[in-house]
Amino acid sequence: MNTSLLRKDFRLEPASCYVDARCPRYKVVVPAERDLSPLLPYLNAVAKVLYYDPEEPALVFRLEGWKVAVRKDNVQIGPVPDMEIGRRAKEKVEAFLEKVWSERDSLTPRYEPHTLPPPLEIYKLLPRTNCGRCGELTCMAFAVKLASLEAELSDCAPLYEDPRFKEAAQKLEALLS
């Protein structure tokens, strides 16, 4: 009996959010070997989750810069520029999923739905100094990155250096956890 979560085969599909032919982007689509629904609450407990709906069931998380969508019958990973990067992404995501599944007995699953707040809600709690120390030109750009888990809250130095922002930092930490 096959104990793998995912099948060996996969395909690349155009990522619908990219339309620039000079910079093609694809998503990797990997069929599941079996129903992945039981895995989702464990992923919800340990991954950098952007979205989890137990009713659908679907979960979206970030891993090494890729956005990974897990549904009961497949996994989608993107964006990737070509087949070779797609293959590497599939291998890394598959290893992560297998690790979580193999360690499930020592994990506490989270069954609650999960969504991250919109960028504007995050922005309102940031210092709004546009200092650029986080690596972004504006606090709004930083808020967008935080909302998609492409940045870390700790990158905002004023939030932790200035005592005036202590309460906002605590609210943001709770909001983004």
From TrEMBL:
Residues 114-174 form the 4Fe-4S domain. The keyword Cell membrane does not apply. One of its GO terms (molecular function) is metal ion binding. The keyword NAD does not apply. It holds the Pfam family FeS. This is 4Fe-4S domain-containing protein. Keywords: 4Fe-4S, Iron, Iron-sulfur, Metal-binding.
